């Protein structure tokens, strides 16, 4: 009975299933909304009339290609560093899943991520994490597999639907901060990560993820291949990216920028300041590496000229 409603369905069939669960499910048509900001603008009036809140959806993956779908109120800040620690991932932080996962696993276009897509057969191994604050809402807006429509459903109705497709999910208090894990205080969500199964993505998606740093901090040590290893020591950033790799740096900043925007409330001005400070720090580090490389190259050239 748990997976009786699972399968590849369209938005109309989904809405019919939701109305069978909760008779007063409302459906609203609006302009295509690719971002939470655009979505809020599109359904602001309806949300007020319905007494409904907007839920944001994040599709994340860990170092082992296990996928995590986080559903949270738009006002909830999802701290990826804290969540990673609670899942027992250590310093290998969660990052945004490749776009490929939307099309191949959840079978929805970009901008249409929704918990209803977990009905897809290939989505059965995704870990669903639900914001504990959702339970206190009267109604919540979600996309019904398309981003030019929204449906309002109660948290109880959502739970009933998710249970019917065998994907009940796990309610988590996402407001917890300053997590300290250790022998006497093990990660409280580690069982979720341990019980998940890994997905396989294309080589291109894996390479893109390898170049991108974790969304909020975290560093790794490693040696580069080829060239003067001594000269390269200490010039690697998270993910093994060279300190003077222009394209890699741009990719890293882009990944971090969108991860922070997706994981935080849209009206939180402090996040803009944090992004700017982080950008300044990275560019200064980039400048220092470039200066060091240039100095060493010039020094080597001068020594060669003297010896000649």
UniProtKB/TrEMBL annotation:
Pfam families assigned to the protein according to its UniProt record, in alphabetical order: tRNA_edit (PF04073)
SUPFAM superfamilies: YbaK/ProRS associated domain
Disordered: annotated segments: 207-242
Superkingdom in the source lineage: Eukaryota
Gene Ontology molecular functions: aminoacyl-tRNA deacylase activity
Domain YbaK/aminoacyl-tRNA synthetase-associated, chain residue ranges per copy: 36-160
Family per similarity comment: Belongs to the PRORSD1 family.
Protein name: YbaK/aminoacyl-tRNA synthetase-associated domain-containing protein
Organism in which the protein naturally occurs: Phaeocystis cordata
